[in-house]
Amino acid sequence: MSTTILGLGHHLPPAVERCGVRRPIAVEPVGPSTLAVKAAADAFARAQVPADAVEFIIFATMTPDVTFPGAGCYFQDQMGCGTVGALDLRAQCAGFVFGLVIADQFIRAGAYRNVALIGGEVHSSGLDYSERGAPVARLYGDGAGVALLGTGSGAGGLRGAAVHTDGRRHREFWCEYPSSRQHPVRMTVEDLHLGRHFPKIDFDAVRAFAEDALPAVIGEALKKSGVAVATVDRFIIGHLLPEVGEAVGRRLGIESGRLNVPAARHGHLTAAALPVALSEEVAQGSLGPGATVCLAAAGAGFAWGAAVVTL
Amino acid sequence: MRNSRILGIGHYVPPQTVTNADLTKLMDTTDEWIQQRTGIRERHFSGAGVGASDMGADAAREALARAGVAAEDVDCIVFATLSPDVDMPASACLLQERLGISGMPAFDVRNQCSGFLYGLAVADKFVKTGTYDHVLLVGAEVHSTGIDLTTRGREVAVIFGDGAAAVVLGPEDDPAKGILSTHLHAEGRFAEKLWIESAGSRARPRLTEEIVDGPEARLFPKMEGRYVFRHAITRFPEVIHEALDANGLKTQDISLLIPHQANLRISQAVAMSLELPEEKVFNNIQRYGNTTAGSIPLALYEAEQEGRIRKGDLVCLAAFGAGFTWGAVLIRW
Fold first, then answer.
1. Which residue of A has its CA nearest to B326?
2. How far is residue A142's CA from residue A152's CA, in Å, rounded to a whole number?
């Protein structure tokens, strides 16, 4: 018995042009929970599981609707999932892989049968679309993906995963403010004018790190799964920079037809990148039951991970 | 499947004590009003530049030392907070740097007053499945930089204090010992009965001068106290009964109840509803205020230090707070 993806759904708001590129951007004042509710309809329908059969919610995001409570609480309310627990997880770009590993623990321990795992982000409200911020802002999009997880029999499901963090490098890809360590208050008007609430990224460091870390963690997850690179139907690589996904593909010797780099199409969706890309392929029919997929992501933290799943 | 158990507990409380009398210099309030409503006499505030991970690191070092586990042998780090050091990444990442360790997964759980119990449930499952042998769980908050310490914010500001505590979880092979079960709930319908709105992604833009520093500033917590109180005194007993029922136990079997330290009046009402005598309920909110994700482990630390928990005791941890979220965990010590 292993943890299985019972159904997937995704939602991307309409594309809007910003900084010379078109990105899915939520123009209404909504948070990721609202995008996730739209994504969840397909996930529940495909899984043939009603909302009230969900026993636990895990919401991975770095852009919650409000400071607190978490996006999971808002999602739970909008979905009508009774009073089941709703965990809000922060693991940045690797949030979905971390969430998948956590959900798997709850399911394998027998605590819950069906878990709704969400990766959702509304980045656009927190980016600097002026000339100063454009190099970062143009890279992001908004969106949400939902995976309904349960138990399945047979060889399918989550085959293996590996997750890592190296917090020594957190300053190379971070957003410092609001910051609880700033006394006497977390955020001042001066901080606002200085743009301290916008993400700061050392592109060279982030790129170089991921180009080494992603092939390594993919290798680790494949080894744990007992799956060879050649038998994986799709590698979905979640990273801020599309060229990193391409470089990882070259490094592993994966032909372009087996490589899916969501940032190249949507901008970076952070925790939503992997479930959105996987859901898109399932909806299109390019991946079906029995297909083996490697989901990998790396980013801020630095946090990174990979999981091998057979649909 | 094996259980998990707490191998060691550590804590950190910042040195600066802020009494109710100190608060009366900042806002129109009185010691009597605060004590009558909340039971709080004093709390601690952290110093300039000190974040949740700094306090969490001190608590973690003590927990690791007491557990006899080297920092390098930690397999996973779970950090529960609602007042992270920075907007992103997670405080767990900063904690790794403070402890001089890296490689193991480290992430934040953001579940407010129930954060420690949500984190404990996650950590427990990692150990139960055999995925990890040693999980470090930290609960830490720096509230003092995020509350309105003027008369306008007094209803909420007087409640909160800064503090941190940590536990190290490891394997327990006896199925009758360690963490027996974990029970988590949420009800997002009441999200805005106790919340901080900004900086939230649904505001466009997320931060403006008005949000940061105006008469309508939205960086501070808002609470409908009576609402929270009413739900707390229902949900606490309900989830404690759920945990007891799941293990075929009764309220009389509880050796010590450690409720999240939100308000002494809530703890007292819960004890009364469960018909638990005073000596079976541990409270220390009088000295720390509400330290949110730090409150349960900080109370657990003191209870153990004071000899209130003995081998074989049935310890019940329970929480209720923003979200609303709530939960209970039973531990056979």
1. A85
2. 31
- Residues of A with Cβ-Cβ distance to B319 under 8 angstroms: none
pLDDT tens digits, one per residue of B173-192: 999 999 999 999 999 999 99
Q: Which two tokens stand for residue A160?
A: 């293996």
Interchain contact, A165 vs B131, CB within 8 Å: no
| Tokens linked to B174 | 């006896």
* Contact assignment for B129 to A108 by CB distance below 8 Å: yes
- What is the C-alpha to C-alpha distance for residues A230 and B86, in angstroms, rounded to an integer? 41
Same domain assignment for residues B12 and B129: yes
User: A18, A57, A90: best mutation site toward chain B, by most B Cβ within 10 Å?
Assistant: A90
Indicate if the pLDDT at residue B217 is higher than 90. no
**pLDDT tens by residue, B226-265:** 999 999 999 999 999 999 999 999 999 999 999 999 999 9
| CATH code of the domain covering residue B148 | 3.40.47.10
Which residue is closest to A191 within chain B, CA to CA? B212
* Domains in chain A, CATH or no CATH each: 2-153 (3.40.47.10), 159-310 (3.40.47.10)
Whole-prediction pTM: 0.98
Cis peptide before A178 (omega within 30 of 0): yes
User: Which of B95, B102, B198, B202 to probe the A interface (max A CBs under 10 A)?
Assistant: B202
What span, in angstroms and rounded, lies between the C-alpha atoms of B174 and B153? 49
